[in-house]
Each structure stands twice: as structure tokens, then as C-alpha cells.
Amino acid sequence: MNPKPSTSRRRWLGFAASLSAGLTACKSSKPAADAGPSLLGKPIRPYGERSPFETAARTLADDRFPETSNSYTPLQDSYGILTPSSLHYERHHSGVPSLDPARHQLLIHGLVDRPLIFSLDDLKRLPSQSRIYFIECSGNSNGEWSQKSGLNAARSHGLASCSEWTGVPLSLLLAEAGIRKPAQWLIAEGADACKMQRSLPLEKAMKDTLVAWGQNGEPLRPEQGYPLRLVVPGWEGNISVKWLRRLKATEQPYMSRDETSKYTDLMTDGTARIFTFTMEAKSVITFPSGGQKLNGPGPYQITGLAWSGRGRIERVEVSTDGGTTWRAATLQEPRLPIAFTRFHLPWDWNGSAAALQSRALDETGYLQPTHEALIAARGANSLYHYNGIKTWQVWRNGTVTNA
Amino acid sequence: MNPKPSTSRRRWLGFAASLSAGLTACKSSKPAADAGPSLLGKPIRPYGERSPFETAARTLADDRFPETSNSYTPLQDSYGILTPSSLHYERHHSGVPSLDPARHQLLIHGLVDRPLIFSLDDLKRLPSQSRIYFIECSGNSNGEWSQKSGLNAARSHGLASCSEWTGVPLSLLLAEAGIRKPAQWLIAEGADACKMQRSLPLEKAMKDTLVAWGQNGEPLRPEQGYPLRLVVPGWEGNISVKWLRRLKATEQPYMSRDETSKYTDLMTDGTARIFTFTMEAKSVITFPSGGQKLNGPGPYQITGLAWSGRGRIERVEVSTDGGTTWRAATLQEPRLPIAFTRFHLPWDWNGSAAALQSRALDETGYLQPTHEALIAARGANSLYHYNGIKTWQVWRNGTVTNA
Predict the structure, then answer these.
(1) CB-nearest partner of B29 from A71, A109, A227
(2) What ipTM did this prediction achieve?
(3) pTM assigned to the model
(4) Which of A8, A63, A123, B15 is the most exposed place for a label (fewest CB within 10 A)?
């Protein structure tokens, strides 16, 4: 799955050859070794922490109501395709509950043959699986509708993160409960104070939805639904209900607050798009991006992230002239369906102003639209489901800003 | 890459049908909802932590000299294929140094055309890549040579962990420095107090070795080499030199302490195997494993991890009768080369004593040997490179112990 090293090396060697001019620190041959005394370091310990020199943090959206707010993943500081759990974005509707896993239960009821209650121990005994999936809030990039937000990649695209999720297929639990014929929906409810509710079509519940307790090799973090959440692959984030305590099989959706007055898209004719679940193909350049600074002309590696709720990313193209010309970026393997895909493109910056853009194509043939095309299709009243092409403006002094 | 949900579901449904007898908590239809008052939860915050209910920890090997010791990843508590960075195993030779990334440098010298010094900023500007690789200490499972250790999966196999590593291909830096013809080795040196040194064949350095600064989407953790380490895929852990500060191109290996008196295998004739770099195919059942307890007869999911320094895991077989009969386990996708591969097998425990074993076959056709076969080939004097089949004994009362 990894590209053959020999092939990759050939391309990078060419890039490296052009790079030596830019590496001002590589001229001396003095050893770096003589940097003070060598003291015995710190001992082994049961649970590690990051270096005190590292300070990447989630950006908090609103200090007035921090329990009903959100925080953004610092995508501009990200490496690879995984988001560290400590930096996974947050979106809460009544804060993060403290739930005792020994007491937490999941109820499955409604139009079922056998109403069931599962403890965590019950669920963990069942056949589990792990999948690397992104989760994206449908409100991600909402400032981009007006292009008045997005000072950096966190603020513009940081309500999206990617983790390895572990849990039991929901289909298994539903088979055990026995869904009765007229049921077409599940009402999923969280154990947070607002009892967050979303209606999930039974077809998606049976297809690939997980009831998850694991994230990146350990139990879910409290902010991501500890001890139990839905993971509904590729769909808008808040349907992956956190702190999951109840699933009720019904004939109709519940028309809850967070699928009627919120998380819908107001069209120009006054109607609203509703139940627009799938997060469509999207991408963002994370370097160079808003708030970063280039250290003079020379070779750089443009890098970023692309994702699609419909499956694999097939191609990412990058423009440095605001969309006039495009070049195909290298996609890092493995390209997993419904996961972040990292892309790279070498760029020799000549010192002129440049407008950087990326556009993603997914395996269904869907191409990420321009801002203008998205506005033409949906109008400018929406708050949700923005996936237009993002522009970062590089100025002659090397600063990078929101365009 | 993921198995088609429809196929997987069929198999799991069959398993679920046989499972209902085991789910004693699933009989009631009372809602789990009425569990006390619903208070506003905790606010968003810049950097998350795990739930206080979760206590999984690395096991510390030796309290007398905690700076020259090791800690074990709690594999028995692991999910999926990734190790949380806070639980990645440790092996230090003089403790964990505190290195300022703004001052740390990498020197490349010796038989090169252009000695070079790279700052972290220099390195991060170069084309990077991310790869999910396991790293295993060659001393992992050393108690298994005598079968007197291994009370749980941490103690028997927990000097192995798996992360997404991000860095620049070493081949790119070496091309920049210009390796001179007679050079066949690189001497890699760490910035810890002992100046840990290992000799790396130039061929491997050029093939797929990374100079890494990223781990699981954020900077390396201090215990894993912050701010810079080698990642030498599939080779014994201590050649992936941590806190990397120097690479010297030479004609001969350095014959350092940690490749002569240590990390070699003493054979029965008094000679020693040396430079036995590749970690061969290996596996361990993580559930049920030593120290865990089965809650009575009934259906369970056996699960574990397999890996090979030679590439992908092709097959894992599980025995519940001490190796007399074997069944193929399901391998979780994606199966990445030189990464942990998670395996699963449904098991209906009838309540009799059982001896659980797993054996891994990698894509080169190499099959993990029995303990006896390994002893026959290598004798019993070795401390390193143990990859024999591991047995867990399940007793009639459900307790699981080292066999």
C-alpha cells in the first residue's frame, strides 16, 4: 500500500537538489554535540505527557457559554492523518457529562421484538471492529459562506478530526433486538443534560454505523462521548450522538431541535434543506495557511488534508494562482474511505503574491466546488454544509492570510 | 479496503444469534434514562485528558534504576492497531532528556561530500511522509525464553507499540550530504546522557528509514525521542535511535555496547548472533490473556495483535487446545506492512480448561515458530529476539494465567 521507496526517493531527490539554496543552516560542519552537560534524564513513568515545549491547542469558539460551544482542532499544526485525542474538536450542546462506565447503559426499544439494555461490559464482549474515520461538524467552515472568517486553518476547517474508532456494529445489536417491520428510523439520544437527539435512518444504522467505546487505542475521551457514542461514518458530526444512552426504533424521524431549527440549510426561497447527512468532498491546505509565515523565496512543501463522506479521496489538485492552473498533489497511502487523506506538493515560491487553493475529487467522481458555485446552488443564507474551495493568500513578505 | 459491511454482518449475525444466552443484562426493558439529575456538563477546553475512570497504565519494570529501565504497554487493554502515545512502551539507557527543539540539531558527517547540520525547522521544511509502523524492543518477551515470565500481555509482549510516525526520508538527507563511495554504515547517536549509539547499514538507511518528528498527529513524545528520532521500519527498536543528534557515514559498524555486549543472542556453542535486525513475525492474544477472567461459559471474541518486520501479516491462526487444532482468525483491514494487525475469532467457551495460542504468517511465508522450535534453533541462552508462540491457560473458574 505504501508507495515503493525507490520511486518516491527518485522524486524527492530531485526536490532535495533544488533545496540546498534554501537550507541556510546546513553550511557548517561543526558537531552539534557540544551543547552542555549530559545529565541523567527522567525516569520511566506509567502514563506519558507531551513535551512542555509543545503548546498546540484547540481554539475555543466562545467564552460566554463554554458548555454550549465548540473548540477547533489546530489543523495547521497537524501531521499525518490522525488527530491526537487531546486535540479532537469539540461541539457540545450542554457541556461534557461525567459518566461512570460501570453505571452507564444503552437501551434499545421502540418497534423491536425484544427491548434490550446493554452495560458497557455486555457491549465489549461482542465482536468489535476498529475503523479510521473522520468526523466533521456540519457547521464546520460556516464563516466561509460569507468569507468573513477563517483566519487560520483551525478557525476555517478545524471542526473536523480523524481517529481510529473501536466498537460493535450497530447492526448486530439491532439484529439481537429484532427490528419490527414498520420501523424506518432510530432516535438516538445522548446522556448529556440536553438529551441531545438525532434521527438516524435504519438503512444507515444497518450499513456501517458503530456503537463505539474506543478512540485511538484507548477508551473514548470525555469530550468525544465517553463511555459510548455512535459513529455514523461520513455523516454530519452531531448524528454520531455522544454519551449514547438510548436508541428507539420508530416509523418517522423525531424532528428534534437539532435536525429542524438547527443543522438545516435555509435556501433563498425560504425552504430548508433537511436531513442532508453526507459530508461531501472537501480539502484544506494546512501549510502554508493563515497565520503562518514563509521564510523567504525558495522550495516549500505544500501540504493539506482532504476527505469525503462518500468514500475514498481519488485526487487532490493544488493551485498557486487562485484557480487558474492546477497541479495534482501526491496522496499519502493508505487512502482509507471516509478518513482524512494527507496530500503533498513541492512548490518553489518565487516571492510573488500567490493565492493557494486545493480541490478534492472523491471516488464517486464528486469534485469539491468553488465558493461561487456553492453560493449559486445554495444561496448565502446557510450556516451548515460548506465545502467550497478555500483560498489562502501568500503576500510578498511571506505572511499568509485568509483571502 | 474495509470488508464489505454486508459480508461482515452476515457472519456477526450468526455469532450474535448464539450470543443472547450470554447477555444476562439484556433482559429488562426498563429505560436506562432515569439515572439522576441532568446537570450542565464541563466546558470546552484547549487540551483534553482521559476520563478519571480510566486507569490503564504502563507497567514499570524496575524501580531501582528507573532511568535505565523500561515500561510495558498494557496490550491487554488495547483496542484497534494504534497505541496511545501516553502508553507507548519505553526503554531508556540513561533516562529521558529534556531537549529544547529550538536548539536541537542533527549533524550528518563522516564519509560525506558536504557535512550538514539541520535544525528542526530545516527538517520540517523538507518533504515529509507519515507511516503507521510498530516498534518492538528486541528484548520484548525475553522472559519467554525460560517461560518464567509473562504474567500478562504487558509483561510478556508489551515492549511493542504501534504509532503513525511522521518525518523526512533519511535518503533525502543523505543525498543532500552526498555519501562517499566506501561508506557502508551510518553511526546513529542520541542526545541522551549515554550517547546511545547504533550502527545502521547504509542500504536500510536509503530504503525506508525516516528521521521523524511526529507521532500520532503531534510532535514525538519525550519518551519516544522528542524532538527527533530515527524510525527504522521492522528492525529491533533500539536502532531507531531516539533524541537523534548525529549520523556519521563510515566503512565499518561501530561495534557499540548496545550491539555487542547487549542486543545480541548467545548461542549454545558460545558464539553470538549479532546485527540480527529484523523483528520476525509474532503474535499475542490480548483477550483472553493473563490476569483477565471469563465470566462463565458462553460466547466470547478472542482478539489479539500480530506483526512482522518483514511486511504484511498474511494469516493468523488461533488454537484453543494448545496447538492441536487451529482456526483462521479474521484480520482487520487495513493490514499495513510493518504495523500491528488486529485479529478476531469468535469462541464459544464450554467451561473446560483451554490453552489459547496464536501464530502469525507474514507475506514472505515466514510462520511464527513454536517455543520448542525456537529453542531447538537458538538454544536457551538468549535474551533477545524471542518470537515463539505464546500460550495462555484458561482455567475452569474462568481465570487466565501464563501457561
Answers:
(1) A109
(2) 0.92
(3) 0.92
(4) A63
